[in-house]
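User: Structure tokens for this complex, please. No commentary.
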Amino acid sequence: MSDGLQFLEFEGSSALADEFGERSADYLEIYLRDLGVTSIALEGHYIDRHYLDEFANYYSKSFSVPEAHCRRFHFFSQCSQEELEQAFLDATSGSDKMEPALETLQKLYLGFIVQRPLEAARVGRTVLKTYPDDGRRFYKACRRYDVHIAGLKLSVEGLAFQHQDRGAAVCASTALWSALQRVAFAAGRKTATPHAITRAACSPYPASDGLRNPEMATALSKLGYIADFFEPEAFGNSATFRALLVASLDSGLPVVLSVSTEEGAGHAVTLTGYAEPPGTGQVPLPLLCDPLEMASAQLKVVYVHDDNLGPHAHYELLDGRDGELVLQRGDASSPRPPSWRVDRCGVFAGLVPKPAKLRMPIPDLLKNVAFFTPSWTFVFGTELRLHYKCRFATGVEVKQQLLRNVDADPDQRQWFLLNCSLPRHVGVLSAITDQTPLCEVVIDVTEVDRAPGTPSVLGLLAVGVESKTTPGIRLSRIAKLLGVPIVHKRAS
Amino acid sequence: MTEPTEEHKNTILRRLTDEEAKEEADRLTDEEVKTVIEEGRKTLEALEASDNSRAIRSSKLRFS
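Assistant:
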């Protein structure tokens, strides 16, 4: 087999099955064809850091030792094998054709799959573009990957997926590994390998036995992250759990969902995104507090990395017969692939890896929304039918978004940008009417509240409200009493 | 409750004249606003005190 770059036509699921095994071939064919795949560039000798760690620590000590290197398949759309080859020749020619050729390759690039030399788990690290968002799919838990081929740099937005190999790691470690791909990247760190994650879990049993939730949390702690954890049963309703899933995903934090299959086996998958819920619903709060109106309460369709099926699979959250939350693995009306048996799994818990300084638990975001609802009712009255969102962000993102917001009052915006220090991690609590954000409250989430019952408010970004309106005046007074700056909407 | 119309929204978010804005600001007392903030604080304190959602239930199951 040649080690040099080879160019191939994309031939569908039979060729995928030959290269990657039967398990995901049909799903990958549908997924890649939906993205418009036509051709492949194949690196015959590729060293994958994650597989190499598994090889060094597990496979090299086996009786029958596989190869230490992999192959990597890169997928492209809208060009034939010959056109793809010509584009690579142009991009590496040293002539003035280089730049346009590289731009073309970037435009057509769909991502890659690493083929591991493991007969039963050939799908290694896989990063493929997501479906277009079309304004209704949200993949904030994905990230950019820089890919180097033949000295060229291409990039693809996605989240790494792979099959569990059952030797060095099973679904729990693999699901954590996918989730950490995003969190480590955001923290400026390298993602731990599946083997390193399994080792960090400190389970005394073989890797093939799997991990319990506390062991998964231990792995995250040892690797330098915080494990946030929530269970549907703890809230007595599914709306709160759904709201926490959306808060996590909107924060760019993939969620590891632990589920129980119909056969009673424990399984773990990674949520990478979700589809816009059909409307808003109520997130109940305890102690007879008014419920929160949130779109996330109606979360139904989620996109999931499941190594039983493939990356970014369409799954659905449903309410089961006995009030439990169920993950339906697939779209029952139109399974993809048609051969996939859509089943239902009971949802046990969500585990969210977070950067170490992001200390506020995700459920506390909802509590902080509850702190502000009397204020928003006071400001806007009851006629506007507000609904709410909450997420974590970085201080840098908040300032960058404010800088780009042409609707913000320019003088107040400038003052905020030049004079307000923000911590690395903040919470953003949003009051929205219809689709119009009215006001966002920025809070510090790097510490647990020093004064119980009082959020650490850093600023009010009321960019849906002009200052010389009744709500604008009331928000100004609230900001003054809280001792924080406010940015209104510019006067029209 | 009926859905708010665009007219509702425009009414609530209407820009006031300078005189109307001054009247609104003068009418609004700090006490009124502090009461609202205090209501939120009591809600948050009560929610923090009653939170028992952190106990891990599914600790015996292994996920593989």
